[in-house]
Amino acid sequence: MKKLILTAGLFALSFAAPVFAQTDEEAIARLNELGMEFRNAPFDAEALAQIQSLRIPREALEDFTDDDLRHLTRMPRLGHLEISSSNALTPEGFEVLAQIENLWSLNFRNANLTEAHIAALSGIEGLRRLDLALNRNIGDDALVDIATHETLRSLTLDSTAITDDGIAVLD
User: Fold this and answer.
1) For an engineered disulfide with 139, which of 27, 75, 161, 165 has Cβ 3.0 to 4.6 Å away?
2) Which burial class, exposed, middle or buried, applies to 73 when counting CB atoms under 10 A from its CB (0-12, 13-18, 19+)?
């Protein structure tokens, strides 16, 4: 997210402004550039309006960056997102996901996430399903942030660094 600094008199305020794709056309162009498809066809305005579930293919993830996450905010019905094996996405980029109004399911299996990525997800309201399997850098400290998702009903943690003692935070 971009930081804005407002100066008023002797005081300066700093806050993060929401980052959205500028237009549907910009989002469509970038998603097509990445080789992504909807119903075996290139993205178009109809796809942005209709897509409810999105799996970002590994080939696209090679070039997929934090800036590309903002294009997902142009998908008003997006409820399920799947991202795996990405080294380029940062915790700061993940904060954009909270701006996707209907997002209820995240699959980050083997996505090379850290506890900082999980903390960045805390702004997502209505999250019901979270798959973090095979993210070996996620440990017990992440469970404090996961526990804040009161609507969470399904959590997958196999092959992470979370211990039985850490799971007690969720009780």
Assistant:
1) 161
2) buried
